[in-house]
Here is the input.
Amino acid sequence: MPTSEKTIADHLKAGGYKTALIGKWHLGSEPEFHPQQRGFDEFFGFLGGAHDYFNDKGIVRGNTPVDEKEYLTDAFAREAEEFIGKQKESPFFLYLAFNAVHTPMQADDARLKKFAHIEDKQRRTYAAMMSAMDDAIGRVLAKLKATGADKNTLVMFISDNGGPTMPGVTVNGSL
Here is the structure.
């Protein structure tokens, strides 16, 4: 995205909001495109797409590499909860961009066991990844409620590209 274009974070930051991006940033990896050059005060996540859910290479806080060991969907929820918890006095904008459910198709063992009844391995992994994202969103919404921010917060759910196009896993068109 050209640097001449202003992001929603640019506008909200100028209006006094504390801004954070947690998750996937896919609008350029060169320094001038970095989230903290595009209106975000804080950034935790990765630059680019299709990031491994268990490999910490490429995960950064600001510009500093992070040694992240937690399943990535859970790590993003943790970081979102921490950001929300720090916002006591000022309005905030949190852009939480999960990479779930996106390839590579990877889930943790606990959630895979939860869906052991699904015979197809790809479908089972997809269900486990969806469950992880659902759990993470629930944690974030609970944190908003626990801090009282839910009374004055707009939450939007937006998908960037639909589900994986593997046969038998998802359908992105009409049935």
